[in-house]
Amino acid sequence: MQSLQRFITILECFTAEKPELSLGEIVRETGLPKPTVHRIAEAMVRYNILTKDTKTMRYKIGVKLFEMGSVYLASMELRDVAFPYLDWLQQQTKESIHLGILEEIEVISIEGLESTHSLRLKVWIGKRAPLYCTAIGKAILAFLPENEQDEIISRLSLRAFTKRTITSKELLRKELKKIRQEGLSYDRQEHEEGICCIGAPVFDRSGRVIASVSISGPAVRMTPNKVQRYKAFLIQAVKNISQRLGYVS
């Protein structure tokens, strides 16, 4: 915890008025020992959090923070664009709706609306879930470029959450191929017993998958007839979101 506090203290020294600082200036700003500041600052340089001019030996904010900030801004724009369509989808289905994005080898929920039924799936913003056994995760994984998909699959352990979880990478690849063909993904009690979901991808203006939307509910309500009816609503919702983001199919 102390190391994290020192990391943040050093980072907060950099402002619009002071975009570049020497080691001595950081020491004076933070009040930390010079060896400590040097050790942490050099570690930050290695991870591109800071950059260091080899001539002046001065530090400034690195590209990694810009990349992270860009991800944050993109997710905020996505949430703002998507919310009206998520709300519409929830009104049509009365089930829980999630909007998720890729985060390493998981999917993270960045927006959602809970079902109006007393028996419902809880929506947790910020919750992480596996890519390979959730509808919201498979919808993203299926539409990634092949090299990125292969790299992610190579890192997955495919742990069984239920007796229906796919635990074979060969079967997972076959499932992803079907999803690409149909444009929809399914979670048939693969992640949680008694919960069924359907998902679909969201694309940006370049045609890249950047998110997915899912409808989730108890298996007793997510009957084949209802799922068939919900498909049209889900496809319309993700189509509208993608178009608002500049995607042309």
Describe this structure as you would to a colleague.
It is built from eight helices and nine strands. The longest helix is centred in the N-terminal third of the chain and has 31 residues, at 63-93. The protein has two domains: 2-61, Arc Repressor Mutant, subunit A, CATH 1.10.10.10; 72-244, 2-Layer Sandwich (Beta-Lactamase). The strands form two sheets. Strands 6-5-4-9-8-7 form a six-stranded antiparallel β-sheet, with helices on both faces. Strands 1-3-2 form a three-stranded antiparallel β-sheet. By secondary structure, the chain is α+β, with helices and mostly antiparallel strands. The N and C termini lie far apart (48 Å).
Summarize the structure.
With 249 residues, the chain is an alpha+beta fold. The protein is built from eight helices and nine strands. It has two domains: 2-61, Orthogonal Bundle (Arc Repressor Mutant, subunit A), CATH 1.10.10; 72-244, GAF domain (Beta-Lactamase, 2-Layer Sandwich).
